[in-house]
Write a structure and sequence with these properties.
- The protein is mostly helical and 127 residues long.
- It has one domain.
Length: 127
């Protein structure tokens, strides 16, 4: 069984985030603001990238685990509710698989964060 982010002490994580952030809503020394991905960019290349990412989540944690992961990323401030909703729409195109959130490992969430960062780069260059 992998690391379950839901078992983390949320208050401790929030405290660490606030101490490390230069100002509320910032990414601390990184110079980025939360949410990391404010809107999902458009285009065929982006859609293929998103579907590939979501397929990886479904493979690792099943459909229900992928839905829960997207909600977790919203909760953590990586994506806003509107992006989560659009990603869930794309998730329907990926299909269903068995599994649950607990099947996802820390590495799965790290890869998701890298994918979110890449999508944010695309969104910035296309705006």
């Amino acid at each position: 069984m992998g690391v379950n982010p839901l078992e983390y002490d949320i208050e401790e994580l929030r405290g660490l985030r606030e101490r490390s952030a230069a100002e509320p809503g910032s990414g601390g020394n990184l110079g980025v603001r939360l949410p990391y991905l404010a809107e999902l960019p458009e285009g065929a290349e982006v859609r293929a990238f998103v579907l590939d990412w979501l397929a990886e989540l479904v493979d690792a944690g099943g459909f229900d685990g992928a839905v829960a992961a997207l909600e977790y990323y919203r909760f953590m401030g990586w994506i806003p509710p509107e992006v989560r909703d659009r990603l869930e729409d794309h998730l329907l195109a990926v299909g269903h698989g068995p599994g649950e959130f607990d099947d996802l490992e820390r590495a799965d969430h790290m890869r998701s964060l890298a994918r979110i960062a890449r999508l944010a780069e695309w969104a910035e260059t296309r705006s």
